[in-house]
Amino acid sequence: MSMQPTDHIRLTAFVHGHVQGVGFRWWTRSQALELGLAGSATNLDDGRVCVVAEGPEDRCRELLTRLGEQPSRHRRVGTVSTVIEQWSEPRGVEGFTER
Q: Which residue ranges traverse the bilayer?
């Protein structure tokens, strides 16, 4: 496992709303890669999408803003009603996957 810079952080965001079957995970991946973040976007059985992103804290916070902003300034697909965030230490993930 590679060492992470101390300013790196892990964001886990549970996105509620109409976010499955609309290209939301693809959009999230494109935004995360644009920001230089690693992680994943995963459909959950209850209709939410779980977004995990690791990287510099300011970029993770920017992704969080993009996930929930109303109206979206970044052409976000779907309709987001709520985003629940959790912060933790990074685990050293690489790339960004849609699951």
A: none
